[in-house]
Amino acid sequence: MLTPAVLFPVMLVEGPVATLVAGSLVGAGALGWWPVWLAATAADLIADSLLFLLGRYGTGRRTERLLGRLGLTAARWQELRTAVRSQLPRVVIGAKLVDVGAVPAFLATGMAGVPYRRFLAWNAPLTAARAAVLTGLGALLGGQLADRVVAQPWLAVVAGLALGLALLAVHTVIARITRRTAAHR
């Protein structure tokens, strides 16, 4: 039987897509909204916290050498720390809006020495809201497709592939824009 607990590991790895899929199952009547929302929120908070903690405690000589190779000199490092600390709300909101930005944003937040409670105070409500929106969008999609899928099961496969390809395209475009923006700086 499919439960949000089964989807939880997938939500840890690829939260937005898994949350949309789980939401579509909510719309089709196969899962409850609250358990899916709770699983999506918990998975996202755990993944974000792991990135934060990796940034906080993943420092060492190898990390310093890698950051030096990437051009993060001592002066730039101090600028980054100051910027992340002073603009934490923007960092977290940006990471939630552009999922690919979460990895560097939350690693930098941890490395900047932002207190975990402050990070969580901004991250938790935004994560809960994002999980609600994605679950709701999935439920709308699932509700509209449920009747058609019962009559024509191949539509579920086509819809899943189309959604996956659309999200992959959006992810690719955002990643390219991010790289171009970083290269121009």
UniProtKB/TrEMBL annotation:
The membrane topology of this protein is:
Multi-pass membrane protein
Per its UniProt entry, which superkingdom is the organism in? Bacteria
Domain named VTT is located at: 25-139
The record's section on InterPro entries has: DedA_domain (IPR051311), VTT_dom (IPR032816)
* Annotated keywords: Cell membrane, Membrane, Transmembrane, Transmembrane helix
Give the family this protein belongs to, as stated in its UniProt record: Belongs to the DedA family.
Q: Which Pfam families match?
A: VTT_dom
The entry's protein name is VTT domain-containing protein
Membrane-crossing residue ranges in chain numbering: 32-55, 119-142, 154-175
Location(s) in or outside the cell: Cell membrane
